[in-house]
Amino acid sequence: MSQKKILLVDDEPDFLYLTGICLKDFGFLVELAENGKSCLEKAAAFQPDVILLDIRMPEMDGWKVCEELLKFPNTQKIPVYFLTALVGRDLEERAVKTGARGILRKPLGSNELLQSVRQILGEISP
Predict the structure, then answer these.
(1) CB-based burial of residue 88 (10 Å sphere; 0-12 exposed, 13-18 middle, 19+ buried)?
(2) What is the per-residue pLDDT across 80-98, written as a single tens digit (0 to 9) for each?
């Protein structure tokens, strides 16, 4: 099985770094992006199997990033999952309307993160 590629996007440097290390330790190939613009550039170049995307970021939030990814043929089929601490009734519905496949809730422990990512990537049954 080839190494799965994950693009992790978050404006919080500590979360980005620590989560990135955790995913790498689990054997994934990980690219980090600290903002929406960087995400769009790296998604096109890196072609990840999945994007884990924070919603609340300055300049370009996750909602806008997700909409932008859908505009381009080389990024529109990459599955996006929001990684957020936000809660609310409309969150899931808005995520789907924006083009995301789902939401992972922060904070995630390392085992929960691994299980969620494996499920997303289809390595284990849901």
Answers:
(1) exposed
(2) 999 998 888 788 889 989 9
